[in-house]
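To: structure subgroup
Subject: Chain for Friday's discussion

All,

I'm putting the inputs and outputs inline so they're searchable in the archive.
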Amino acid sequence: MSQSSDQTNDALREALENQQLRYFRASRGAAKGKTGTDDTAKFAENLMVLQECALLLGEKLEMNAVAYAMCYDNDETTGFSFDPNSHPHNPEVVGAIVNKRMPMRQFVSSLRDYINR
């Protein structure tokens, strides 16, 4: 195992132990995160489902787009928000996973804070 992989696993282990959000960025069908390929793949799968649900909901409510979405799966919260600073024709998505239930307002606020860093 490489040193980079060890650091990644340490980052995931620390985030899980401290119930910290693990942030990701995604665009053009690829996601990037700092907690390893398995965790990033998990986020990417959740993101596809959330985006599909957001599109369906947006259509049903006759809205053009849904800016953010989140879901709970047992004691885990996953969600995303479009980065308003990204190019409108190639929008970037910022998302996170955390191993606890978080109120929507707090979760979305933390995504916005991450975007503005």
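Points worth raising on Friday:
The chain has one domain: 3-115.
Strands lie at 22-27, 30-33, 68-73, 76-82, 93-98.

D.
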